[in-house]
Amino acid sequence: MSSKSAKIKQLFKASDQPHCGNVVLNFTGQPKAELALIGDAYYNAARRLLEAFGADHAYSDLDAYPIVFMCRHALELLIKAVLTLGNDVAGILEEQSLRVKDIYADHSLAKHIPQLKGVFRAVGWQDAFEQAGMAKGEFDQIIKEFEEFDPSSFTFRYPINKDGSASLKEKHFVFSPKQFVETLDPILKSLSGACSGLEEYKQQLADARSEIAASVYDYYDPGDCGGYSEYFDYDPES
Q1: Residue 110 and residue 143: Cα distance in Å, rounded?
Q2: Would you call 113 exposed, middle or buried from its count of C-beta atoms within 10 A (0-12, 13-18, 19+)?
Q3: Angle at 100 (CA atoms; ends 98, 103), nearest 5 degrees
Q4: Contact indicator for 53, 177 with CB cutoff of 8 Å
Q5: Nearby residues of 109 by Cβ (< 8 Å), 6 or more positions away
Q6: Nearest Cα to 184, choosing from 192, 172, 195, 194?
Q7: What is the 3-state secondary structure (H, E, C) of 44-104?
Q8: What confidence tens digit (pLDDT) does each residue in 105-136 have?
Q9: Which of 54, 65, 161, 222 minimizes the number of CB atoms within 10 Å of its CB?
Q10: CA torsion sign, 32 to 36 to 37 to 41?
Q11: What are phi and psi of 149, to 5 degrees?
Q12: Is the pTM of this model over 0.70?
């Protein structure tokens, strides 16, 4: 046996081996801006696991746990991404009714439905989920059902609660992971698309505000009383 001590390996360290594939996380330094991207990553991982789950018609029942958890986490991240962008839009429009406080305070889903729909209404997307192929009210129903079984994002992470009781109340809890993912698919895709649309909408608002400000500045003449008065009487809606 060698007297040399083995070098202690590190978990989070870049590799100098080309086949290892280093990644960069928090690459923007603005984690709020990455919520939707990370939500998409969790959902993509769930779909890849689902493909492996039924590939040879042999699977472990327990493989359903990470599939459901990753979908649940993706859903939460995407909802919070929409609300975060809604707050940005609210700031530009100076519309405080759109602003949501404590977005990141807990893992709740259903309580955010009214605020999320408020953001959609503000940008003219009232029927976004119906356009994705869902029946009227189906989005609300699915979110509430999910939260009924998993209110705090722990049910499919831990089999027991803090008091030792079962996370899943029903014994022999039977469901189809494939059907579960297919049911969530239009919701997750709609929320992801909404995030992209809101980013573009936010940029358009910011550009329009800059153009208005530049236009006002062009008309402003500090040596002319008329110009000075006109500057303060400027109405962006006219």
Answers
A1: 6
A2: middle
A3: 150
A4: yes
A5: 75, 76, 79, 143, 146, 147
A6: 192
A7: HHHHHHHHHHCCCCCCCHHHHHHHHHHHHHHHHHHHHHHHHHHHHHHHHHCCHHHCCCCCC
A8: 999 999 999 999 999 998 899 888 998 889 99
A9: 222
A10: positive
A11: -85, -25
A12: yes
Write the single-letter amino acid at 36.
Answer: A
113-122 and 138-149 helices cross at what angle (nearest 10)?
150
Nearest to 234 by CA among 223, 218, 224: 218
Q: Cα separation of 134 and 138, whole Å?
A: 6
Residue 64: partners with Cβ closer than 8 Å, 6 or more residues away: 53, 156, 175, 177
The DSSP bridge partners found for residue 160 are 166
Q: Cα dihedral angle (94, 96, 98, 99), rounded to 10 degrees?
A: 110
In 3D, which of 179, 186, 199 has the Cα closest to residue 131?
186
